[in-house]
Amino acid sequence: xxxxxxxxxxxxxxxxxxxxxxxxxxxxxxxxxxxxxxxxxxxxxxxxxxxxxxxxxxxxxxxxxxxxxxxxxxxxxxxxxxxxxxxxxxxxxxxxxxxxxxxxxxxxxxxxxxxxxxxxxxxxxxxxxxxxxxxxxxxxxxxxxxxxxxxxxxxxxxxxxxxxxxxxxxxxxxxxxxxxxxxxxxxxxxxxxxxxxxxxxxxxxxxxxxxxxxxxxxxxxxxxxxxxxxxxxxxxxxxxxxxxxxxxxxxxxxxxxxxxxxxxxxxxxxxxxxxxxxxxxxxxxxxxxxxxxxxxxxxxxxxxxxxxxxxxxxxxxxxxxxxxxxxxxxxxxxxxxxxxxxxxxxxxxxxxxxxxxxxxxxxxxxxxxxxxxxxxxxxxxxxxxxxxxxxxxxxxxxxxxxxxxxxxxxxxxxxxxxxxxxxxxxxxxxxxxxxxxxxxxxxxxxxxxxxxxxxxxxxxxxxxxxxxxxxxxxxx
Length: 476
Fold this sequence. Notes:
Layout: E1 5-6, H1 14-17, H2 19-29, E2 37-40, H3 49-58, E3 63-64, E4 67-75, E5 93-97, H4 99-110, E6 118-123, E7 129-134, E8 145-152, H5 156-160, E9 166-173, E10 176-178, H6 186-203, E11 207-213, E12 218-225, E13 235-238, H7 255-265, E14 273-279, E15 299-308, E16 318-321, E17 331-334, E18 338-341, H8 348-359, E19 365-374, E20 378-385, E21 388-395, E22 407-412, E23 417-421, E24 424-432, E25 435-446, H9 451-461, E26 471-475
């Protein structure tokens, strides 16, 4: 016979009692401070006299002078899951009730969904402050950033989104938790920051927590996984106009994405690129052995760049690979150091593995862009600035960005050269065989382009230029 009323330490069937009951039971079992609770099955008959008697017996610990000081909460098997929270979809009732009110409110909560749901009768904490907390950024997945929002007293309106609370951004650093102190709840904020990060580490998933403080202790009144953050699956997406709708919004404005979409819109020849989106939930990054990329005829290799996050410790993370797309043996096992990737110069999937492994301690989701690089005699940039065009050109790949000087030309809208600065180049940078190579010339070479050559470059781009937007071009 299924037991329809349960307390802490008893096994909770999520389908019978709901996810919220299961989470609260887990929190209590793992040593987190949770208000005492009684869990009612969704199938309990609240009109049965014997059932009513057992409920009142189990909840006497919440009664004082004939009144039950409790929060009556919903607990559905469809809420508070990794897929969706459904926060606010079901009824919760907070207050002090006599026996009849307690039972009637339990019925209201049980019937607040399309089908009957589980009910939690939770001791009401006399809250001086209450609020919500996120163990990692719910927008970006950054593990080093948490978020707390709180109000004085009870937080029903805050939970429902009807009021804004005091917002605190947490920065998890090597030296502890840093935040802008308010002088109001500073000690509690540090403690809460530790609690939510501890929950996250135990379940290996970022969490959304509701909490109350009675000025003595912090209680977790419910927790759920952060939803809406993760991708449905790790996968490769070609950067194209046809795929614009499935490119994650978090990177749609990234310059490497934006420039390709604009170039395709205006018919500008541009190197092919794909993005790899990844959920970082396992110790070993899930990189496919089979990577479905067809290189163009110009492809000399690939540059794989982490674009979410855009940097690690202030540094852009970029790896080069030759035009070997995949290497089925790109993962090796080392008895001393565990799992590692082979030389990133060999294949794209080895580069992806290294980047995804690098980023695991920093974010729950990550995105890398895989870009073809082409062999180039010359490369450079063109900008439209007010009523003129600026062209900068250097020999080799234009990767140096300040290391290699460029010849520069200003042309007016009638293609007259109004200013130029030509340089002698004694070295160039090229990407070859998956690595950056420096070429030293036997003698300095003047980088000089005629007016006709410059007009040809401008004509290729003039109708596609957006003011203040930089286009990268390759001149064979």
